[in-house]
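About this split. The held-out portion is used to measure sequence recovery: a designer receives only the structure tokens and must propose an amino acid at every position. Recovery is the fraction of positions where the proposal matches the reference. Here is one held-out target exactly as it appears in the evaluation file.
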């Protein structure tokens, strides 16, 4: 039987999984672009980003363009954790096909 405890519960939540997937696909994302792509409210998105940041999975930097902008990206730890998460999912799929 598969050990479901191997799934990273922080990443496994739908909103955070979506954030991690976008951040894995592109080097960095402005907050407003993440918000638009994910169709999340400011509060919901920032709550998920804060949880991922506190776990060391996501880093951010503030820039001053014509207006302040915050950009988010995966840390090395976040990228490795996401890769591990995907490996566990792939193992689950393989075991279900047997």
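Reference sequence for scoring:
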């Amino acid at each position: 039987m598969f050990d479901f405890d191997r799934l990273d519960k922080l990443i496994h939540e739908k909103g955070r999984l979506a954030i991690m997937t976008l951040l894995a696909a592109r080097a960095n994302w402005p907050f407003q672009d993440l918000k638009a792509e994910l169709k999340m409210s400011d509060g919901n998105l920032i709550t998920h980003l804060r949880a991922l940041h506190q776990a060391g999975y996501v880093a951010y930097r503030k820039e001053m363009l014509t207006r302040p902008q915050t950009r988010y990206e995966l840390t090395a730890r976040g990228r490795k954790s996401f890769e591990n998460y995907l490996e566990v999912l792939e193992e689950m799929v393989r075991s279900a096909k047997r």
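Annotator remark: The longest helix spans residues 76-97.
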